[in-house]
């Protein structure tokens, strides 16, 4: 998908304006108008902008991810103090869907934004952007619905039919 780019100022996350010279084509060959594909059109050095985006992305991804991990450490410690096996199993079942959804979301975000442009290709960026913006939100209802016993039974029957066919 190609997007048209207007030449002119570029705003960073802190509200500072940077003037970039866009001397290449004014079309972005990407899934959406993300910053890294936009910087590829620049004729000037993009090192500072890429570094700044990498630092902000690391903060915006790692801070909530580490907070969630820390809270789950406390949750797991509390669950391990439950004496009944059935109670522990129920508690872990409740937490597992959320952990799965969070891992998929933050994992795909980290894969998309926490690598320097010298390591990733534009095609890889397109695929990870589609995954991050489209597939992950579509997976969330599936992940959370697998806690429902009726959905589990239906999925099990479907998979058994597929394996015998």
Explained architecture:
There is one protein chain. It is built from 5 helices and 4 strands. It has 165 residues and is mostly helical. Strands 1-4 form a two-stranded antiparallel ribbon. Strand 2 and strand 3 form a beta hairpin. Helix 3 (85-113) runs antiparallel to helix 4. It is flat. Residues 1-8 and 11-17 have low confidence and may be disordered.
List the helices and strands and how they pair.
Elements: E1 2-4, E2 9-11, E3 17-19, E4 27-29, H1 35-39, H2 47-80, H3 85-113, H4 122-145, H5 149-164
Antiparallel strand pairs: 1-4, 2-3
Helix pairs in contact: 2-3, 3-4
Give a quick rundown of the structure.
The protein is built from five helices and four strands; from the N terminus they run ββββααααα. It has 165 residues and is mainly α.
List the helices and strands in order. Answer: EEEEHHHHH
Unreliable stretches: 1-8, 11-17
Tell how many strands the DSSP assignment holds. Answer: 4
Task: Please state the overall shape, judged from the principal axes of the Cα atoms.
Answer: flat
Structural class: mainly alpha
Please summarize the sheet with the most strands: 2 strands, antiparallel
What would you report as the Rg, rounded to the nearest angstrom? 22 Å
Relative strand content: 5-15%
Q: State the end-to-end CA separation.
A: 39 Å
Strand line-up in the sheet with most strands: 1-4
Query: Overall mean pLDDT score?
Result: 76
Quaternary state of this entry equals single chain
**Helix share bin:** 55-70%
**Total number of helices:** 5
How many structural domains? Answer: 1
Transmembrane segments: 51-80, 92-115, 127-146
Main location: membrane
Domain G-protein coupled receptors family 1 profile: 1-144
Protein name: Olfactory receptor 8G2-like
